[in-house]
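User: Could you write out the 3D structure of this protein bound to iron/sulfur cluster? I've included everything you need below.
Assistant: Certainly. Input first, then the structure.
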Amino acid sequence: MPSLSDSPLPVRPAGPPAEEIPSWKKALSEAIRDPAELCRMLGVRLPDGCEAASRDFGMLAPRGFVARMREGDPQDPLLLQVLPVGAESESRDLPTDAVGDLASVRDHGLLQKYHGRALMVLSGQCAVNCRYCFRRHFPYADLPQGDAAWEPALQSLAEDTSIKEVILSGGDPLVLSDRRLRSLIGQLDAIPHLTTLRIHTRLPVMIPERVTNPLCQTLSGSRLQTVFVTHINHANEIDDSVASATARLRDACDFLLNQSVLLRGINDSVESLESLSNRLLGIGIMPYYLHRLDLVSGVRHFEVPVETGERLIDALRARLPGYAVPRLVREEPGEPNKTVLA
Ligand SMILES: *Cc1c(COP(=O)(O)O)cnc(C)c1O
Ligand code: SF4
């Protein structure tokens, strides 16, 4: 890097050379994968059964996210979302595909369960491995790779005029490079009956640098209405870097929504959900769904009884404006929509 004394003007190259690795990709590759390292950093004891659990489903936690965890607190609500624990082995009896995803793979990488909306599974990778994830057993390795692999899905979308909305999902769709997303969204723009593009992602909260200028330009340049759905479970996930990434998204998208999963020990209290809603609204994101946990193998210790969920939503309604209260939903195989519980 040139020192300031070398040049009278601030040096700002027009753009990085094509080969330069964007900072978000670097952050992704530097994410913590070793539970012992994470526990050392935070000064907490390595939980029993951690190693076996992480062999089953590897730990992945970006450093910026870890920086928002409280030191010395084994119950930290962000830590509990990422740290493998022995309790995961207690629900091995549960199925690996609770929501019927495999049955719904209409074409390679395309899932349609609901009228007018189809979901494109773009990537098996995420910026984080959430311990409660219902897709933790999804056979992503079987997904077709590379741009040509989108052909069958795009073909099928082009032929079915009943589909108005395409949802980019994964894994995390924003793991794809800006170039590939621009190419894909350009191809979706060209399908005349599509009206809406929705993106479900956890990247802006995990690695806020992912909200790059080229990404924002692609989103604002699309002729489709853009609905951007973040996945944030706890108010502590939102720091200044997330707030400023969100501000950039607000300029680029038509709607910003959030979905959360109701998780035992993480956000199953009125106080926690209330501060999450307030924090989200404070940065311009509307609470959309609060999902009941999809029960798959390894996640039962996060389960919150449905009555508790309903009680929490009632209590939130009594405290917050209507638009600040997410709908408590559950996905039931074979239903024509998500089931609204409260
Ligand atoms: C959840 C989901 C959607 C979106 O449902 P909305 O109620 O519109 O948010 C669409 N397709 C699939 C396969 C889904 O799982
Ligand atoms: S980001 Fe989403 S898909 Fe990825 S592990 Fe977390 S919950 Fe699962």
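The mean pLDDT is 91.
User: Perfect, thank you.
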